[in-house]
Amino acid sequence: MANLMARLVLFNKPYGVLSQFTAENGHRGLHDFIDIPGIYAAGRLDADSEGLLILTDDGALQHRLADPRHKLPKTYLAQVEGAPSEAGLEPLRQPMDLGDFITRAAQARRVAEPDWLWPRDPPVRRRLVIPTSWIEIILAEGKNRQVRRMTAKAGFPTLRLIRVAIGNYHLRGLLPGEMRSE
After folding, report:
1. Cα distances (Å, whole numbers) of residue 105 to 8, 76, 136
2. Which architecture characterizes domain 73-166 according to CATH?
3. Which of these, 9, 37, 88, 129, could form a disulfide with 84 (CB 3.0-4.6 Å)?
4. Which of 35, 46, 67, 100 is labelled catalytic?
């Protein structure tokens, strides 16, 4: 049971920022954006991924949000190289052997580029001869670089990755570097 006075913060992690408070290897940390003592990230996003990071001061809640056994769906938008067809998306919807683990089945569908999307700094590289498209992927897990590894194995490497939701918590209305308490 979560502490009734638990603090829960939704943060839009910018590209190039670590999911930890300390800076490391030339990457900024969360301390550059968040000055709330005693809160910790419930899960992680790679430095080159953007979007929703949930922070809390409640250890049990932190564990429940981050642990795949609780099956909180994690929703991502991925800009990928190429234009996957329905058949091209099918491998993402099935358990996929990534070598060190087999993924659970995921949901995947083509979507339009979001109209609310902010520009990335630095911009995603563009190639004139290779189209890009956006897909929404919903996982019941979230292992290290899983979406990137899945899309690459399916033949559509990820160029930009944004986590937009974890369970009922959504990025809606937060620009990179912004946060709100829930």
Report:
1. 29, 15, 14
2. 2-Layer Sandwich (3.30)
3. 88
4. 46
